[in-house]
Amino acid sequence: MTFHDVDEVVVDPQRGRVHEHGWQSWSPVGTHPLHVTTPRPETDVLHTMRFRPETPAPAAGAQGEGLLVVDPGTGAPVRLYATVDASETVASIRTRLVGDRLVVSADGPVVRDQIEADLQTALATFGDRFAAANDLPAPRAAPTVWCSWYHYFLDVTEADLAENLAGIVDHRLPVDVVQLDDGWQARVGDWRRQSDRFHSVAAVADRIRDAGLRAGIWVAPFTAVADSELVRANPGWLVDADAGHNWDQPLRALDLTHPGVQQELDDVFGRLREWGFDYVKLDFLYTGAVPGARHDDVTGIAAYRDGLQRIRAAVGEDTYLLACGAPVLPSAGLVDAMRVSPDTYHPAVGTDAVQHLRSVPNTVARAWQHGRFWVNDPDCLVLRPSAPWREEWAEVVARHGGLRGFSDRVADLDDWGLRTAHRLLGEPPLPVPFDAVADAAPKASPLPPGP
Q1: Contact 55, 289 (CB under 8 A)
Q2: CA distance 388 to 391
Q3: Average pLDDT for the chain
Q4: Contact predicate 114/79, CB 8 Å
Q5: Residue 391, C-beta contacts closer than 8 angstroms, at least 6 positions apart
Q6: Which one-letter DSSP state was computed for residue 97?
Q7: Quick check: bond before 109 cis, omega within 30?
Q8: What is the DSSP letter of 370?
């Protein structure tokens, strides 16, 4: 990659601020003083899974992926640098401070603009312009969700789903979707076979629908673990590139331009739709755009978008698609909702004992995207008494959460948890577009291991 200078701005190095936008859902995003070095990955795996795989960060300064905003701190207008068409390429945009001048460079086309407003208003202005330039559809309202992940993780069973479905009905909780998360499949990549903890995933969908609710399911459609049958049987279906590490093994990225992969996507998602799932959480989507040679000579971004469009065609327009771990700008217009943050917490850093909330900074910093690109998903509420930060997180979700759901065993909820579930899931959806910002900047959190 080659970076070219696109602007030079007179700044106050102490008062000026830069907003860098991260590549995907889990990437750090926020506003920083001009003179500091913004967050960097601590390991190669984190670089692949939390940052942009093909673009190393500079030694100092900031780097935004497709979007960077500078407040010079001098009283001069805010400067905005952005990619407008993210269908094939997205520019990385860097800053370097030289005395009282900030040099901005990019490795691809960007538009430049000056906006007589604060940073948050500038971001909202960009969101409006990007949505108009790309003719994005108005987002449809999100359903409310119960999700299995933050209590059961990979050990979820068919009996767990039945128990919680009964609890939702018995407590008359305002839940629209009961969503089965990771753990139902034999292996990541082997979506045609289910875990031995499930007699029938199709029967799970039937049970949910018989209770008058919608059935949801989790899939990582562009990813396969190294020991999956798919990888062993179809090595030609893979992009020859690092895709990260999870589930205790290397991850492989599927070549979304390969006819065999395309047929696999058609078959898997057509079957899920036949089984009755009309809410699908698509996770680890960044792997669809990793750099590398593909069957067709297209960019990783173009291949990624084609994969999402193929999934949409298989599941139908009425299915609600939630993206997670997804390249942000390239996903606009192709999904209904977007996780704008990393997981609330992760088993690798402890479950209920973790004291800082990983999701807060991104949730606040990306609030302007809600209603412009999609419905923002800050991640699930966790309402059980053993979560020491549950009240703090509930307030963040109340202020910034477009898609609202919770992820507890219903039987573990106390009176506060049940009341809060009723209150937050029963409220009308946030207005769109949403321009509220936090009263104060969130505290910085160290990069945790894993996504």
Answers
A1: no
A2: 8
A3: 93
A4: yes
A5: none
A6: E
A7: no
A8: B
Contact (Cβ atoms closer than 8 angstroms) between residue 39 and residue 28: yes
Residue 349: predicted pLDDT: 61
**322 C-beta neighbours (distance < 10 Å), count:** 27
Ramachandran class of 156: left when φ > 0, alpha when ψ lies in -120 to 50, beta otherwise: beta
Strands 92-98 and 63-65: antiparallel
126-160 tens-digit pLDDT:
999 999 999 999 999 999 999 999 999 999 999 99
Contacts of 381 (CB under 8 A, 6+ apart): 390, 393, 394, 397, 404, 405, 406, 407, 420, 421, 424
Residues 198-212: tens digit of each pLDDT: 999 999 999 999 999
Residue 247, phi-psi category: left (phi > 0), alpha (psi -120 to 50), beta (remainder): left
* Angstrom distance (rounded) from CA 8 to CA 160: 58
Specify the amino acid at residue 55.
T
Q: Would you tell me how many other CB atoms lie within 10 Å of the CB of residue 348?
A: 11
Sign of CA dihedral 147, 148, 150, 153: negative
Catalytic machinery residues: 283, 343
The answer to whether residues 86 and 332 touch, using CB atoms and an 8 Å cutoff, is yes
**For 223-246, what is each residue's pLDDT tens digit?**
999 999 999 999 999 999 999 999
Q: Stretch 330-348: mean pLDDT, rounded?
A: 91
b/e burial code for range 75-87 (CB count within 10 A of at least 16 → b): ebebbbbbbeebe
DSSP output for 376-421? EE---B--STT-TTHHHHHHHHHHH-SS-EE-S-GGG--HHHHHHH
CB 31 within 8 A of CB 18: yes
Token pair recorded at residue 43: 């390991």
CB atoms within 10 A of CB 159: 11
Q: How does pLDDT run across 166-200, given as a tens digit for each residue?
A: 999 999 999 999 999 999 999 999 999 999 999 99
Q: What residues form DSSP beta bridges with 217?
A: 180, 280
Q: Which residues contact 126 (CB under 8 A, 6 or more apart)?
A: 67, 69, 80, 82, 113
Written as six digits, the tokens of 433 are 């577009």
- What six digits make up the tokens of 358? 């990983």
| Single pTM value for the model | 0.95
| 152: its two tokens | 């059961």
